[in-house]
Amino acid sequence: MYATVVGGVIDDVCGDLGFETALHFTGGCSRKLTTVPLDTTDADFVQFNFRFSCNTNPGNPVNRDTGVMIDYSRNGGITWNALFELYNDGNNEESRFVNIMLPRESRGVGVQIRWWQPSFTASGADDWAIDNLFIGGKREEKMLSDAFTIHNYNVRPAGLYLDRDDKDMWQFYDNTYPSNFCGRMNVIRAGDNTGLPVSVGTKD
């Protein structure tokens, strides 16, 4: 799903952005996340949970130019066009939900989406995290969805189930899976993976 991940690791340092772990960018050289080329012809939006400066104490001053840019490319990354900017406003105590409507110019075959931080003060400083990334629209037009979970092949997957008949209603359903319970068919059972949070979220 990703062409490049630079300066980021999956961890739980930033707390629960959506599903316990998130993709956390703290690298000292570059910080960048780029998708593989996608067919966004019928896509409507980019959605994700986001948090700034998990490693920074609340109230510490931040620089206006340490924000994160979201761009798109239609030519394999040769040129990039600005889509959105996330300002580092110093509010690092909670995550935020970001919904970016895709303009017509960003829709087509071979489109890549990029998150990158042009400048930061030092390794580990001005960090940021992203989780529950979703690019798409209607059910049959899903392009990309990722909860950035750490895979443990000894337990049942606790992330998204994308093949359920009701998936057009739900955006995320973490630590849940289709099952039968107490004689009832086709119910959603939750919480089987001990220690992992349970959440269900609707689409907009």
TrEMBL record:
The molecular function terms of the Gene Ontology recorded here are: lipoprotein particle receptor binding; metal ion binding; serine-type peptidase activity
* Main localization category: secreted
Per the UniProt entry, what are the Gene Ontology biological process annotations, in alphabetical order? cell adhesion; central nervous system development; neuron migration; proteolysis
Family annotation (Pfam families): Reelin_subrepeat-B
Where, subcellularly, is it found? Answer: Secreted, Extracellular space, Extracellular matrix
Keyword Calcium attached: yes
The protein's matches in InterPro entries, at most eight in alphabetical order, are given as: Reelin, Reelin_subrepeat-B
Q: Which domain of life is it from?
A: Eukaryota
This protein's record includes keyword NADP: no
Q: Which UniProt keywords apply?
A: Calcium, Cell adhesion, Developmental protein, Extracellular matrix, Hydrolase, Metal-binding, Protease, Secreted, Serine protease, Zinc
Q: Assembly and interactions?
A: Oligomer of disulfide-linked homodimers.
> What is the annotated role of this protein in its UniProt record?
Extracellular matrix serine protease secreted by pioneer neurons that plays a role in layering of neurons in the cerebral cortex and cerebellum by coordinating cell positioning during neurodevelopment. Regulates microtubule function in neurons and neuronal migration. Binding to the extracellular domains of lipoprotein receptors VLDLR and LRP8/APOER2 induces tyrosine phosphorylation of DAB1 and modulation of TAU phosphorylation. Affects migration of sympathetic preganglionic neurons in the spinal cord, where it seems to act as a barrier to neuronal migration.
Query: Into which family does the record put it?
Result: Belongs to the reelin family.
- Quote the protein name from its UniProt record: Reelin
